[in-house]
Amino acid sequence: MDAGPDDTPFSDFLGFELLLEEQDRELLSRVRAFMTREVEPVINEHWTRASFPHELVPGLAELGISGLAYDGPGCPARGALVNGLVAMELSRIDPSIGTFIGVHGGLAMGSIMLCGSPEQRERWLPAMARMELIGAFGLTEPEVGSAISQGLATTARRDGDAWVLNGAKKWIGNATFADLTVIWARDVEDGQVKGFVVEKDTPGFVPTKQEDKIALRVVQNAEITLTDVRVPEENRLQEAHSFRDTAGVLRVTRMDVAWQAAGCARGAFEHALRYTKSREQFGRPIASFQLVQDLLVKMLANVTASTAMNARASQLQDAGQLRDEHASLCKAHSTTRMRETVGWAREVLGGNGILLEHHVGRFVADAEAIYSYEGTREINTLIVGRAITGESAFV
Ligand SMILES: Cc1cc2nc3c(=O)[nH]c(=O)nc-3n(C[C@H](O)[C@H](O)[C@H](O)COP(=O)(O)OP(=O)(O)OC[C@H]3O[C@@H](n4cnc5c(N)ncnc54)[C@H](O)[C@@H]3O)c2cc1C
């Protein structure tokens, strides 16, 4: 094992960061410093106003973490394990920034990486890795979420050297300001789902910000209407032939979300532990009470178990052996344990747990979105259940 930076938080109880090469530990350390210095002090204000901190994008770009795992043109090609630990680190400080990077660097860049032609990768990935172009990923629709593989209703019709898209999307992160949005639509000719890179300001493409969310308020989610949107054939992802290819992107990015969940739980736990050492009741720090220690240790166990499971799955991903059911098990487990952990963190803060100034309240709220997106607990459970029984229980 290499000696790396020594800023590892105590919550890395079993030393998972030591699994990384020294240069990857240094990257993680830079991410940690940026998030702590630049993001944490301003994020509650943005959360309250539901605004996005565009001023932080150049700093995030300098970290070089967009498309971190991908081995494509201009991409860092650092692998899945460090990508996962970085995703955890972002969400440990703020799950909205973790989601922003997950959508741009994971879902949008991943669609082009895994479903684009070599020319398309050259055309978009280097600028996306530098964050000069920001991406979004449009799959979910107002009337269909979990059943999207069967019920996707947005249509694509070939018209000469272009395609015409019609339909609607919902929940599309970053889409209010993204330069490129990957839209998944069903070809009316052969009935297959295909991917299209729609550029900002294309006529007929209208994203509208979703207001009044109670979770991940910093993430700008949009409902999108697509009315006779003309997309040139060279913007159709050339290797997206059916929903199976879309699912290939989700397999990889679902691991990102499992790591985000571990990060969200870890951030809440750390704030809670710190608080229990400073808060006194009955003349003693509340950390000295057995019932409080019981909750703190259960939180640490949850965070550690999720990290262990995710680390192994990311190693399998690096070895080209990650299966859908592996990622689904990690996502379902990490998000369930996250929801439990943030609840306990809030509990040990008493009334202060619902005040934004102590941060834990933000993690509690944000956990609700992470719990449901990229496949709910039920859907990921059904994916694992099908794999271990050979029986599909989806309908
Ligand atoms: C904050 C946020 C950001 C998002 N970002 C994006 C994005 O960038 N791009 C994008 O394309 N999408 C995005 N999504 C959409 C997200 O992926 C969906 O919300 C998710 O897939 C669930 O779909 P749904 O919300 O329509 O719930 P539904 O599918 O309506 O499910 C409702 C409930 O029914 C349950 N259920 C459904 N089917 C079954 C079944 N067969 N058996 C048992 N239970 C079942 C579900 O588990 C859930 O509990 C985002 C969502 C959120 C909340």
UniProtKB/TrEMBL annotation:
Gene Ontology molecular function: acyl-CoA dehydrogenase activity; flavin adenine dinucleotide binding
Instruction: Give residue ranges for domain Acyl-CoA dehydrogenase/oxidase N-terminal.
Output: 22-132
Q: Give the matching Pfam families.
A: Acyl-CoA_dh_1, Acyl-CoA_dh_M, Acyl-CoA_dh_N
Q: Which cofactor does it need?
A: FAD
Instruction: Report domain Acyl-CoA oxidase/dehydrogenase middle positions.
Output: 136-229
Question: Which biological process annotations from GO are given for this protein?
Answer: fatty acid beta-oxidation
Keyword Flavoprotein applies: yes
Q: Could you list this entry's UniProt keywords, alphabetically sorted.
A: FAD, Flavoprotein, Oxidoreductase
Tell me where on the tree of life, at the top rank, the source sits. Answer: Bacteria
Q: Which residues form the Acyl-CoA dehydrogenase/oxidase C-terminal domain?
A: 248-388
UniProt similarity note = Belongs to the acyl-CoA dehydrogenase family.
What protein name applies here?
A: Acyl-CoA dehydrogenase
Q: Which organism is it from?
A: Nocardioides flavescens
